[in-house]
Amino acid sequence: MSIQEFRVRLGKTAPAEARRALDQLTCDHSREVQFAARLCLDELVCNCIRHSGLRAGAELLCAVSFDRERFRVELSYDGPGFVARVRPPSEREDSGWGLALVDALSETWGASADEGRVWFEILVPRHEHAVVRSLSAGRHRH
Q1: Residue ranges per domain, the chain?
Q2: Residue 89 CB neighbour total at 10 angstroms
Q3: Which of 30, 56, 86, 122 is most buried, with most CB under 10 Å away?
Q4: Contacts of range 16-21, beta carbons closer than 8 Å, 24 or more positions apart
């Protein structure tokens, strides 16, 4: 399994910085996997900004790992955990959609109740298995 990490400082630009860093790591995946991963990461970073109690400038560690079947992103931060619950957002609300989107786009996701850690996993479509296998081995097939 290939594992790569990057850090993002909390602040107004944190979601965009996290998406750009993720794009550098996922450029050989399908648009579907990239879109789902970017959106899930964006929502989790935004939730960390809003709900973690961390101040601007605090660091998030993002670990990205994949094998031929799964693509996993995990955010860790120096803060409290929480019990993750998806509540159905009202169509009239401007916020509250984040975890519902993560739940809909990922195969599995969660949060640690004891420590600052959230994650999601996306299944890699079967047609991508050969590409992911070659990337994991360090060679790229065209």
Answers
A1: 2-136
A2: 15
A3: 122
A4: 18/42, 18/45, 18/60, 18/62, 21/62
Helices (H), the chain: 14-26, 31-51, 98-105, 129-136
Strands 70-77 and 108-111: unpaired
pLDDT in tens, 62-85: 999 987 788 899 999 988 777 777
Q: Token pair for residue 115?
A: 């420590």
Q: At what angle do helices 31-51 and 14-26 cross, to 10 degrees?
A: 150
128/103 Cα distance (integer angstroms)? 22
The SS3 of residue 114 is coil
Q: What is the CATH number of domain 2-136?
A: 3.30.565.10
Task: Go through 13-49 and write b for each residue having 16 or more CB atoms within 10 A of its CB, e for each that does not.
Answer: ebbebbbebbeebbeebeeebbebbbbbbbbbbebbb
Take residue 98 and report the two structure tokens written for it.
């984040």
In the chain, % of residues over pLDDT 90: 38
Tokens of 109: 């996701």
- Global confidence as pTM: 0.80
